[in-house]
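User: My notes are a mess, but here's the protein and 2-oxoglutaric acid's SMILES. Can you give me a structure?
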Amino acid sequence: MVVVPPPSGAQSIQTVVVPVPGERLPPDRLQLATEALRADGMVILAGAIPMDVLDSLSAKMNEDMLQVSVNDGDLDFGDSNAVIGEEGKAGEERKPRDFRGIRPPPLHPHLHREVVYNAAAVRVSAALLGPEPTLMTYATNSSFPGSAQQGVHADCPFPAHPDHTTTNGRSPGVVLNIPLHDFTIENGATLVYPGSHLNVDPVVIASDNVGDSNAPSDAALAARHAVRPAEQPCPKRGDIVIRDLRLWHGGMPNRSDHPRAMLAMVHVAADYRGPRELHYFWGFEAEETSRDFWHDSILRTSVAFLPAPIAYQSGGHSKPRTPLQLAYEHRVETGDTYILQQQQQQAKI
Ligand SMILES: O=C(O)CCC(=O)C(=O)O
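Assistant: No problem, the inputs look usable. Here's the predicted complex:
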C-alpha cells in the first residue's frame, strides 16, 4: 500500500501545554484539549509527565528493549498487546523487528501514578468517553531500527453503521501514547489521518472492509488525504498523546540507530458495545505485589494479578480472566451483547 508522503513538518494536530507536569489541566485547557481530541481524533498534552519519572522508567525499558534486540525472535508480536481489533491489513507480513509490544514492567518500583493515572490525561479521556472508562492495557509500541512501515489501521473495527461504534454514538475509547524519546520523522513518528475517526461512512471506507475490519482501503486513504492530509506529529519526551481508537494511523519505518518506544494505555468507554466484542482485549496482568497501585477515582482498571516474579515481557502470557472479561461473560449470559442483540433482531424479522 502506498502512503502519500506527508508534507514534511506540517502539523495540524493541536498541542495543549500542561502547566505543572503530573498535575491537572486548568479548566479552560481541559476544555481545549477535549475539543481538539473530539474534532481531530488526537491531541498532544505537552509536558504532562515529570522528567525524573520518565528517566527512571526509560532506563528500565531501554534495558528491556536491549534484551529483546539481543534475543530477537523470543517474543511474538504480542497478540495480547494488540488494542481493540486487529492491526494492519489481512495477510500483511509482520517482520520480527517491526512494531512489537515490549511491555513496561507492571511491578514496583517501576509504576508511577504520573504515567498510568496521569491527572491531566485521565480527565481529558473521561471528558470525551463519559464516566468511568476502563484502563485495558499497560503496553508499549516499540519499533526497532530497520522496521518496515505498518499498514494504516484504526484500533477498533469500522462500524457497519455509526451507531455501532458505541451504544450512544460516542467514541469507543482512546489510547494514551507516552513517547520514551523525542519522536522524529527519522525514528518513525506515527502517521495519522486527522479527522478520520469521524469518517464512518461505509461507502467511503470501502464496502468490503465494513463490520469486520479496521484497515481503510487505498482509495479511502487517498480520498481522506485529499480532504485533510496525513501527517506525522512529533511528540517530545514528557508529552502524552491521546488518540481516538477510530483514528486511522500506522507506524512508520524507523530509520534511526535506536529502538523507538511509546507506552500504550487504552481506555474504553463504559458503555461501549461493538460488533467484535469477543476479540477485544480484556485487560492485562500485573505482579501481585503491585495490587495497591491499580486504583483511581476516575478510571476503572481491568487488571489480573500473577504471583511474583511475573514474566511481563512474554507476548503470550496475558490472557487473564480480568474483571472486564468476567463482566462480558455475565453480559453473554443475560443477552446484553452486540452479537446477541443482532441475532435476536434477525430472528424477529
Ligand atoms: O508504533 C507506532 O508508531 C504505531 C503503532 C500503533 O499505533 C499500533 O500498532 O496500533
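Helices lie at 27-40, 51-70, 113-116, 119-129, 202-205, 218-227, 323-334, 338-348.
User: Great, I'll file this with my notes.
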